Structure formats: structure tokens, C-alpha cells
């Protein structure tokens, strides 16, 4: 049985796959297997895989008869693996020289279920170079040890969480095979990382974030265009995938409430819901043309509950109203644009609330907090009149925020989440 199993899902990528595989088979630590799963490519990817397997007997290749998505490809590879540890590597990325030896040495002195190591971002385009520094910071874990229930409670937290990619993490082999064995046989793209992190976190006892470990070589922008515009149809697909990930997480929790006992399942699902709808609506705001915004909003509402969508609209109200509130000159062009945008998103949110009465009875704390602070900024800046009764001090404290930090964090999540698929 090998020490390491490295699983690579492959689809229509014969160009970079040899570079990826050679970065693994060329490691100084030799006791490994590489499992490549072709998800029914339509180009010469499978032929490339066959040549790689002929070069090195440690390379095993598998092939899906029909395209089934990233979750299925990773599940096929992980459940067929034999290693003490499992790593997942994307087909156009690499492992830095010495990675496996370093991971093995660290694991010998620090037994854990999840090992989170850092990245070195290699930018493929000028736009990627501009994003590389921030991306490196976002994907570099904070050195720490987490145990038991705090792993899941921390990963998807609004503050001080850690990214939900399954690459640049090493998993104890039996845990990874159990987690992927639980995963349903369903098509899931983009959001499969987040879904599997939730499952793995739920099963894990110890998480280790390794200091000074830039060992995963992340090729940012290969085959992608940063800031590319979405069509309404593409946005609807994206929103649907995010919503499907949440449904699968709810199914997992319903099936395992008894055998994985914890008293905070509802809070942990709410954390994931907030991160997923944040991603959906950032794509709506940033990458849908203005003339498509309303149609995109209707698509989001077909996938997501009205309070979740409204919460994100109030996040934008909050940020624009805050920028207007603290401006040195409220009459300049930038301030006036912030004023118009704050009121525009406010009208959108209020229209949804009026058309969906259930928002008035929601217990969605994220939505309620975002609405509270947004309205506070609107009133403080004089953009809307102050009501006769004010929100409670406790509600105000709950809604405190840093708009700039929130937007920066959301940007890096969006790039990391979107560009690699």
C-alpha cells in the first residue's frame, strides 16, 4: 500500500496534464500512486493519460463512459485509491519539488486527518498577475490546530475561516475514502469542493494548517479570462449549482444527525448557505451586464430563498451607503454614484420583500443583520428617513462590519472558486 495517493480529475486537457503528472512522479518521495480519472473527454486527453501510465507504473488511469462532473471524477479516483494519505490535484496545477517529503515529515510528528498547506500562485495572464498577491494571501492557511467540532465551525465562518478547496489539502486516506463514499452519485461542478469540505470536516477529528508551506503550484488564469462577462443563462446555471450544493449538504445532515452527533448542525448549514449565496450574488453583481441584472435576479430567486437573496442585496446597500456616509465630499461623482447604487439595491430588496411575505417571518440571522446595518447607514447618511423606533443596541452590535474587508474577501473567494473550473 503506497504512502500517498494523488488523484487527478481530467477533462479535455492534454496540454497541461503531463506537466502536472511529472511534478508528482518526479518527487523525491517515491512511495506513491497517481490515479487519473478521465471524465469522458472529447479530445486526446485519454491517449495522453495512456502514455503517462506507460512511462511510470505508479500511474493508474480510469475513464468515465459519460461526462459526470468533478464530484463524480474525484469520487471515482479517491474510492479506488490505496494510500495512507490522499491528495487531490487539479489537472493544470503542480506540486512543488519536495512537497511529498515535506508533508510526510510533518505528518510523522503531527498526526491529523486534514493537513492544509499553502500555495505558490503562477499567473498566466496580466489580469491574473494583478490578482496573484491577494490570491496567495487568501489561499495561504493560518497556522493552527483545530479539533473535533471546531473544524467545521471554523472553515465556513464569516471571520477567520479557511478556504474550501480540496486541493492544497492532504487527507488521511481512510477518511477521504469514507467521505467520498458517502457522496451521492450526482453531477456537481464548481461547488463540489465546498460540499466535500463540509462532509470531510464533519468526519474529521484533527485539522493541521502547516506554516511556511507554499507547496501547491496554482496556475491562475490558465484557459480562463478574469472578469469575463456572464450571460443570464450561464448565471442561472451557476446559481443552480450553488443551490444544489446546499441541498446536498442538507441531505447529508439529515442522514447523519444521529451517527455524527453535534448540537450546531443548523448553524453550520447556515454558514455554508451564506458563503454560497454570497458567491452567487457576487457573480450577479460583478459579471452580469447591467441590462441583464433584473433577469439574473429572477434566476437567483428561482434557486434561492427570497431572504437569502435580499440579504446579499442589503450587503451591497450597506457598502454603498457606508461609502457615501464617510465621503469627504458627498457631491462629487463617486459619492453620487454610491448614493444612486445604495438606493437602487434598496428598491430591489424591498420589492422582493413586498412580493414574498415570508421574508417578514424569517429567522435568517445573516439577512437580518445585513438589513439592520444597511438601514442604519442609510439613515445616518440621510438617504432614508429615520423611523420613530430605532433598532436595538444588540442588533446594531451584531451587524458591525468592515465593508472593504468583506469585499476583498469575497473577491478572492470568487476568483478561487470560479477560475479553476
Task: Please provide a written account of the structure.
The protein has 421 residues and is of the alpha/beta class. It folds into 2 domains: 4-226, Spore Coat Polysaccharide Biosynthesis Protein SpsA, Chain A (Alpha-Beta Complex), CATH 3.90.550.10; 232-417, no CATH class. The protein contains 16 helices and 9 strands. The protein has helices spanning 17-25, 45-55, 70-79, 99-109, 126-139, 149-155, 173-182, 192-203, 232-256, 265-287, 293-303, 306-325, 333-355, 365-380, 393-398, 403-419; strands at residues 4-10, 32-38, 59-63, 85-88, 94-95, 114-123, 144-147, 169-172, 206-220. Strands 1, 2, 3, 4, 5, 6, 7, 8 and 9 form a 9-stranded mixed sheet that branches. Helix 2 (45-55) links the parallel strand 2 and strand 3. Helix 5 crosses helix 16 (403-419) and helix 12 (306-325) runs parallel beside helix 14. The relative contact order is 0.10. Residues 5-127 form the Glycosyltransferase 2-like domain. This is Glycosyltransferase.
